[in-house]
Records
---
Amino acid sequence: DAGVTQSPTHLIKTRGQQVTLRCSPKSGHDTVSWYQQALGQGPQFIFQYYEEEERQRGNFPDRFSGHQFPNYSSELNVNALLLGDSALYLCASSRWTSGNPEQFFGPGTRLTVL
Amino acid sequence: RKEVEQDPGPFNVPEGATVAFNCTYSNSASQSFFWYRQDCRKEPKLLMSVYSSGNEDGRFTAQLNRASQYISLLIRDSKLSDSATYLCVVNSGNTPLVFGKGTRLSVIA
């Protein structure tokens, strides 16, 4: 039973570029949440997708956008990258109807913006 | 005031020691509470959920005080492998998980 997978594992970009990160949820899960974790901080919620729609969004600018596909996998896109976007980006999956808020995290994508 | 506050540490303790971490949360509507463990440069992993009655899993004991909006984690007989960052997490129904900054623990031989 595959857990949550993310790609790529590491990425280096320069300011102003755009990046796409990918996530496949755990088998049986239909909901994907994305988090940004800066060094020395806890993960911060970016947004959550269910049934291919953004259901909730945290305090992140419109440069951060996402998508969910029919197979429940998801992408996070960040436009016009800033140095401050350097962080570990975590994807977490869960089941929308389970009533259990427990989320399972992928290994993350470490993004460095130069 | 931050939604979830934790002492960042680091807590440096010898093997075999007992160590306790505390966490406070500001949203009185919070319904679910968790401790996650995060190893260096890895993803967070659920350590245990926290219930009103308190719960224990081996050497780990979690307590919740709703009146004081306070959560604790006690680790007995610390092992070297317990060295990690411990994240306090709260949730209010369908809202996203809200994480504290984490408390760093180093268990020393």
---
Amino acid sequence: GAVVSQHPSRVICKSGTSVKIECRSLDFQATTMFWYRQFPKKSLMLMATSNEGSKATYEQGVEKDKFLINHASLTLSTLTVTSAHPEDSSFYICSASKNRAGGELFFGEGSRLTVL
Amino acid sequence: DAKTTQPPSMDCAEGRAANLPCNHSTISGNEYVYWYRQIHSQGPQYIIHGLKNNETNEMASLIITEDRKSSTLILPHATLRDTAVYYCIRNTNFGNEKLTFGTGTRLTIIP
């Protein structure tokens, strides 16, 4: 299998601050990464598709100015939650594709954000 | 719209085979059936996928009906560590397609 790592796994921040979450593919290059958000006892909701070297594609209803995504290299995508509020508290999960036939996605461990 | 239907929850006795059904009656000819699972507070884990033939790997078996309108994931000897939410997802096989997760089946393995 392939390894995708997220950091930090848990973060607590004050309301109004910004938080950056990193997603790294450790043993493969990922042209495309995906960011999901998951609320307690709910399913994963796709937030955006992150493409290396280009702007992210956001799902309907996701504020691109609030959730900044940068995919500067083939092994790293970052999600920055800007001016965080308590309602942004959630479990954020990234996934990456090897972009080849076979198609499975590899997911990170998730990052739990708590905004006080 | 996840485009698949799964029972919300199931129980299975430890050591028994767990059979998780999925309905995907509107699946397209170029769409595969993927199964992922999510153990509490972790990221999803890939299990298996298939197009029309039955598939088996070290984790599970996937049985797809001949008309491809439904499938069953089989965990042959369930253990307590198999307790998780299992997601059945339709997707093309290009590798860069975004996955749409439904509500899945919450499988509880009972000692």
